[in-house]
Write a structure and sequence with these properties.
The protein is mainly alpha-helical and 109 residues long. It is 77% helix and 0% strand. The longest helix is centred in the first third of the chain and has 35 residues.
């Protein structure tokens, strides 16, 4: 591999900036989706009164605080799980296959 092949693999500053913006948007969208999913799961647990959870919350002196203390950890947990799976599914191999000529998995050089 000579120097011209290595220089072809590098991104220009504008391409790198655009790539980072796309990745952050992708991760942010997945995190938001996971947090909404976690909040919906918490709402379902409360609405279905699983283990008397809804009854305890609605009989509480501060039901909004109790509901928040159930919903927030679930939303954060689901948000981080969905973000983690999004990181593992990021399309690096597809995106840079044209530039870097990466070998396919399971093949030898």
């Amino acid at each position: 591999m000579d120097d011209t092949d290595q220089n072809d693999d590098l991104l220009t500053p504008e391409e790198a900036r655009q790539d980072h913006q796309e990745m952050l948007w992708f991760l942010g969208l997945n995190a938001a989706f996971g947090m909404v999913l976690g909040a919906l799961v918490a709402a379902a647990l409360i609405a279905m009164d699983v283990g008397g959870l809804g009854t305890h919350i609605f009989r509480s002196e501060t039901p909004y605080l109790a509901a928040f203390m159930i919903s927030a950890p679930l939303a954060l947990t689901f948000g981080s799980a969905v973000t983690g799976s999004a990181v593992m599914m990021m399309p690096y191999r597809k995106k840079f296959a044209r530039r870097t000529k990466l070998p396919r998995r399971g093949t030898r050089r």
